[in-house]
Amino acid sequence: MPEIPPEETLLLVDPDLDFLDWATKHLAAEGLRILRCDNADHALKVLAKTPVNLVLAAFELQPFDGMELLARSRLESPQTMVILTTGFPTPGQIIEATQRGAHDVLRKESLPFDLRPIVEAALQTHENRRSAGSPQAELPSPEGRVKIIGSSHALQDVFKLVGRVARTDAPVLVTGESGTGKELIAKAIHEYSPRRNHEMITLNCGAIPENLLESELFGHEKGSFTGAIARRAGRFEQADGGTLFLDEIGDMPLSIQVKMLRVLQDGSFSRVGANDALSADVRIIAATHKNLAAEVAAGRFREDLFYRLNVVELAIPPLRERLEDVPLLAEYFLQRITRKNGMARIRLSAEAITALQAHRWPGNVRELENTIARACALATSTILLPMDIPLASAPSVAQRGLPDVLDRLINIAPGGVDVISWLTGEIAGRAIDRADGDFKEAAIALGIEPAELKKLLAHQT
Question: Is 406 part of any domain?
Fold first, then answer.
């Protein structure tokens, strides 16, 4: 085995003296002190008197078994790692041992091949956890009316805009990728506005079928449609005097957009099934992950409604553009999750923070929260190392971005042309540019013959 620092101590616990002799010789290394016990009671006494990095214990022990030794050793010395061994561990034993904090469960027949590398890796993990300092980032106390964690310049600029726009009644359009915290920003605008003593009503426009969305927004009269057994106030009436937050406004059907425009123009609306005009004093905040300007160009969103909503735009930066906020957010989620589940305090090592900051976070803050939750659920120590953090694989760029790219290409196509022909011509021209004018190389890249490439170029504008 490679040289191990002098302070490393391994405790072997097994009733089989021949196994103790073999394991002592097999694991002997400079700088590693090996202690031996043949029963669990003696092992606990050693743990009470001597700092031990790793315990390798059999399941079958006296006067209590290895599972009980594991539980007691975790109480006596929480930082000591424990590996249990047995002839043929059952699924129940493996699950229970893992739940109780065992680092590993090994079959004894595999020990001649696996013991040294596993013990070496366990000791290295223990050393990494011991040397892991306190988190580099100090978690600020979220003292405001809304708990938004972040100190990056990009987010600070958003806070400044929130402070300015909150004082007015101007409609606000909050834009940003999914998971960036658009609803939190909407709540901040409301809580710091003169309307904070009234409710902020939230409605996700993309989660409600088109035939029910109008009723949700404006209410309905009894008998106005099947299932309308009583008069019902809509979200505009419920939000009177307060704020109405329309999430995923980009998914609102065109038929409802027309009615929304009227409300924004003069504040009046009618319940479904009624002719009487009602009015409500409501401040509108809308949010979307879509590019509404592109949606307008594609004819999927009304231009007049877009300008009515987009009086003030607040663009929330994705997490990958404010990586300095990752340690703060991760520590916040760690504290919240461990407190909620009654778990011991868990910390992030400096290496774990570096790994988190190196990730691209396509799912933004929501993905980070889920990642920390998974790490807590699988944690075997109070210090998380990079290997303890299960970072999800992001979808490939092609899978994630192709629909958006196609949408943009269709949107920028010149009017009155055959879009398919125009696109093939543009692709052919780009292939020639990438090949520095080499027709043969460009044709190979496109998987066609040079003669076919020349025909496609005829469509280029």
Answer: no
Q: Residue 78: is its pLDDT beyond 90? A: no
Same domain, 187 and 329: no
Report whether 99 contacts 70 (CB < 8 A): no
pTM above 0.70, yes or no: no
Based on the fold, state whether residues 58 and 125 are members of the same structural domain. Answer: yes
Tokens at 348, concatenated: 């992030």
Task: Identify the burial level of 289 via C-beta atoms within 10 angstroms of its C-beta, where 0-12 means exposed, 13-18 middle and 19 or more buried.
Answer: middle
Query: What is the CB neighbour count within 10 angstroms for residue 213?
Result: 20
In a domain, residue 2? The reply is: no
Which residues, at least 6 apart from 67, have a Cβ–Cβ distance to it below 8 Å? 59, 84, 93, 96, 97, 100
Q: How many CB atoms lie within 10 A of CB 388?
A: 21
Find the domain containing 355 and state its range. Answer: 319-388
The number of folded domains in the chain is 4
For 199, the token pair is 């409710």
Mean pLDDT of the chain: 86
Predicted confidence (pLDDT) per residue in 163-201, tens digit: 999 999 999 999 999 999 999 999 999 999 999 999 999
3-state secondary structure of 8: strand
Q: Could you read off the pLDDT of 384-404 as tens digits, one per residue?
A: 888 888 887 655 444 455 676
Contact 314, 172 (CB under 8 A): yes
Model confidence at 320, in pLDDT bands (50, 70, 90)? Answer: very high
Query: Got the DSSP string for 421-446?
Result: HHHHHHHHHHHHHHTTT-HHHHHHHH
Q: What's the token pair of residue 311?
A: 């009086």
Residue 401 lies in a domain: no
Residues 300 and 172 in one domain: yes
From CA 388, how far away is CA 398, in angstroms rounded?
29
